[in-house]
Design a protein that fits this description.
The protein is built from 4 helices and 8 strands, in the order βαββββαβαβαβ. By secondary structure, it is an alpha/beta fold. The protein has a single domain (6-52, 85-199), classed as 3-Layer(aba) Sandwich (Rossmann fold). The protein binds pyrazine-2-carboxylic acid and zinc ion. Residues 7-199 form the Isochorismatase-like domain.
Length: 201
């Protein structure tokens, strides 16, 4: 059993990121049981939930003529345009049906219509906090293990932000799966290593 100072953060294990979903990650459903088992080792488990309003600015459908998986410039920087996904209250935004949800905290992100939020800590402007840092610090949590979807987007951004904030971060790559568009996985691995994130299989 891990000490109280070490939390497990399970990123975006939702139907839309699993096979059959709107933004399916290959093998996204294969990691559910392993994550459930890993939860047994932790006294503190936190789930994140991608949670977009209809017409969110990160959806290609909100930008006439734009195709999904292309990149546009937003006021806060480049933004990949995604298929509509994880719309609040829909089946796609629900957690995978077999995922354990007996967590201490479920933190939602991406609800601001104008800004995407890959990281569990900050929106994509890298400034607007979600409140997760305060939650962890006030509970005395110093160490984080992260798993989930997608390794090259939300897991990556969450892990790098956590490391920059001073948390001791490990990503279990065996319990994560990647979108891997245009070299995004290799870039994410390099970025996490540079930030001091431990990658463990
Ligand atoms: C994610 C793209 C868009 C993720 C969320 O969870 O990695 N990726 N929204
Ligand atoms: Zn999203």
């Amino acid at each position: 059993m891990q000490p109280l100072t070490h939390a497990l953060i399970v990123i975006d294990m939702q139907n839309d990121f699993c096979p059959g979903g709107a933004l399916a990650v290959t093998g996204g459903n294969d990691i559910v049981m392993g994550i459930n088992t890993l939860m047994d080792d932790f006294r503190s488990v936190i789930l994140t939930q991608d949670w977009h309003p209809r017409g969110h600015a990160s959806f290609a459908s909100s930008h006439p003529g734009a195709d999904p998986m292309t990149v546009i410039d937003m006021p806060y920087g480049p933004q990949v345009l995604w298929p509509d996904h994880c719309i609040q209250g829909t089946f796609g935004s629900d957690f995978h049906g077999h995922l354990r949800t007996d967590a201490d905290l479920i933190i939602r992100k991406g609800y601001n219509p104008a800004i995407d939020s890959y990281s569990a800590f900050f929106e994509n402007d890298h400034r607007t906090p979600t409140g997760l840092e305060g939650y962890l610090r006030t509970r005395g949590i110093e160490r984080l293990t992260m798993v989930g979807l997608a390794l090259d987007f939300c897991v990556n951004y969450s892990a790098v932000d956590a490391a920059l904030l001073g948390f001791d971060v490990t990503v279990r790559t065996d319990l994560s799966r990647a979108i891997d568009a245009d070299g995004s996985l290799d870039a994410a691995i390099a970025g996490m290593r540079d930030a001091g994130v431990a990658l463990s299989a």
